[in-house]
Amino acid sequence: MINPYLPFPAEIIDIHQETSIDYTYRLAWSGEARFGQFFEVSIPRYGEAPISICDIGEGVLEMTLRNVGRVTRSIFELKPGDRLFLRGPYGNGFPLEDFAGTPLVITAGGTGLAPVKGLINHFLTPEHLLPSLHILLGFKTPGDILFGDDITRWSAGASMHITVDKPDAGWCGPSGVVTNLFTELTTELIASAQYIVVGPPIMMACSIRQLRENGVELERIWVSYERRMSCGIGKCGHCKINDRYVCLDGPVFNLTDAQWLLD
User: Fold this and answer.
1) Which terminus of the chain has fewer Cβ atoms in its 10 Å neighbourhood, N or C?
2) pTM, rounded to two decimals
3) Given CA atoms 202, 71, 230, 226 in this order, what sign does their dihedral have?
4) Pairwise CA distance, residues 246 & 59, whole Å
5) In this structure, are residues 140 and 164 in contact, taking their beta carbons and an 8 Å threshold?
6) SS3 category, 188
């Protein structure tokens, strides 16, 4: 009988610093996974933490981690050639086939950009291009902006808008909350696009409320609830909301289901 809690080792290929506290780890890995799923990442003697898939490539898995706790602090001490231990992938990812052929608006706040980075890359490849792709990003400060090189590349194929809560002297873009960027959406787009919203709870709640006030139906909105996941297999109950387990039924939900989940 296979132990479902037994992790497997994954070698660190490369580590890229994104901000002062965010780093992207490229790991050697081969297997099946979907954008939006997550792994339980562990270090012996320190514990484990759920980390979303950032991107997937041939023999490579990317995860972006923030140095905020005991487990991540231990991970940040590792170097290329060292190994992390993974369980997964777990949960439901984004249904790529449901987005094909329609405009897509992705709204992400802060580190909420990490779980949709691979999704954006997917829909900017020639074989998966959408009628239009719109990316609305909000960060606390210019220094908190993730994936700067990727954002520059995305701007060539998508409608890109970025705002920051606290601009500095060198910031020339918009300031304020990310929902301010909804003014960039045309009436035609609001009526036809599908929407993905990922980020801090208050940002997601405000974004969803504004979309609904603009007439966007529940079934055209997708969210990711990435909180309180622990075991990853629906046994510990930490992520249970009503009758749903986020680690099994999510973390990606259509709003027709997520509207009843008071997180």
Assistant:
1) N
2) 0.94
3) positive
4) 28
5) yes
6) helix
Count other Cβ atoms within 10 Å, centred on residue 43.
20
Q: Which domains does the chain have, with CATH numbers?
A: 8-90 (2.40.30.10), 96-258 (3.40.50.80)
Read off the pLDDT of residues 46-57 as tens digits, 9 standing for 90 and up. Answer: 989 999 999 999
Q: Which amino acid is at 32?
A: E
pLDDT of residue 3: 86
Structure tokens, 166: 């606290």
Tokens representing residue 44 in the block: 């012996």
For the residues of 52-119, what is the DSSP string, one character each?
E--EEETTEEEEEEE--SHHHHHHTT--BTBEEEEEEEESB---HHHHTTS-EEEEEEGGGGHHHHHH
Among the listed ranges 20-24, 156-160, 239-243, 244-248, which one has the minimum average pLDDT value?
Answer: 239-243
**In this structure, what are the phi and psi dihedrals at residue 76, rounded to the nearest 5 degrees?**
-70, -10
**Contact criterion met (CB below 8 Å) for 180 and 109:** no
3-class SS at 187? helix
Cα–Cα distance measured from residue 234 to residue 80, given in angstroms and rounded to the nearest whole number = 33
